[in-house]
Amino acid sequence: MTQPPFWQPALARPQLWRTLLGLVLTWAIFALVAMGLIIVMVAVFGLTRQGIALAATPTTALMIFLPFLGLHIGLALVLPLLHRRGYRSLFGPSLRLNLRHFRHGMAAIGVLALAGFLVTGLEQILWPGAPEIVQLRPLGEWLLWLPLVIPVVFMQSLAEELVFRGYLLGQLRARFRSLWIAAVLPSALFGVLHFAPATWGVNAYMYVLNTTLVGVIACMVTLRTGNLGAAAGLHFANNLLALVMGVKGEMAGLTLFALVVTPKSGYMTWSFTVVIVLSVGIFIAWWRWMDRKTPEPGAG
Questions:
Q1: Which of 241, 272, 273, 269 is nearest to 257 (CA)?
Q2: For residue 57, how far is the Cα from the chain centroid?
């Protein structure tokens, strides 16, 4: 028997006003949780708001991730109130995260990481002006933080997937047939929330483009597989990758290696372009591979 499509749990109450109100309420709860955590960290641990924003130490970097617990709380409260459905329905009709799909999503980011590291390695060999790569902290110290960091990063990345792919994608696809609305609209919102011209300069637009594109890919993967697992694996592995290699001075409190480069530089424009091209290539390869397989149940 064919499994229902991913958006099946949202079909009972797909009204647009419910979705918009649910998003506003969820974001309000997220903001309240974030403010509460910051107040506690400032009062109890003596941290400053500016120090938390810079995320230059492991403790302050963790504080960037912890407030996303508010999104889980918000969704758990909003879904029964507005849509008469439970938190687990955001994973898909099976009401659970498909761990096989989750591993596939992580593997796809692994391929992307290997390709990206290969390009970076070739730059170091062939391009005299390539940015220097530095190690920010001892490997042993970095490894000691991982048992605490990994579950927090999982919580944070899953929170964003639950909102943008689990909630918005499901609700909008249940209300509209157009993929431009169901997949592109929440992905564009996801991208715009990463807009930071003060940090990235003109590259802020490349950052938004890259994030939006990744969001669209995550939406298409979720609709194709009928479960949030693959998108959650993509997001989780991508955020873990940022802990291995980042940009020096940019929220690098938990990062092992970093490129010594200005975020507003032409090199970062090139870097975003490489990531976009590699991401699209891997997605196309995956989609064609899925076409040759027996379609996933409930792909829709």
A1: 241
A2: 22
User: At residue 300, does pLDDT exceed 80?
Assistant: no
Domain borders along the chain are 8-292
Asked whether the predicted pLDDT for residue 253 surpasses 90, the reply is no
- Greatest alpha-carbon span in the chain: 60
pLDDT above 90: residue 45 = no
- How far is Cα 147 from Cα 106, in angstroms, rounded to an integer? 18
Query: How far is the CA of 16 from the CAs of 22, 168, 213, 222, in angstroms?
Result: 10, 10, 24, 21
Sheet holding 245-247, edge to edge: 132-135, 257-260, 245-247
Please enumerate in sequence order all residues whose Cβ is within 8 A of that of 175, keeping only pairs 6 or more positions apart, or say none. Answer: 10, 14, 15, 16, 19
Q: What amino acid occupies position 133?
A: I
pTM over 0.90: yes
Given a contact cutoff of 8 angstroms between Cβ atoms, the answer to whether 235 and 153 are in contact is no
pLDDT in tens, 90-99: 999 999 999 9
> Could you tell me which residues are beta bridge partners of residue 245?
257
